[in-house]
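As a representative case, the lines below give one protein's residues and fold tokens.
***
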Amino acid sequence: MYSADNFELWLYILSKIPLSTAYAFTSTAYAFSLFAGYYIFHETITPYKIIGTVFILTGVIFFAKV
């Protein structure tokens, strides 16, 4: 059931915005997982992880505006 719900949501999103924009936003999962790992599993956040996350989010923002 979970997969079917996700598929329906994905199709709904694609009906509202272009695929290239929607797919770029899937990259935000990296940022969410970084902070979830920190808060849930007490993982360390290194400067390299922060820089990488900033690059990813900058790319998503840039891509969303294009």
Notes: Helices lie at 2-16, 19-25, 28-41, 47-65. The chain is about 85% helix and 0% strand. The chain has a mean pLDDT of 88. Residues 26 and 64 are 12 Å apart (CA to CA).
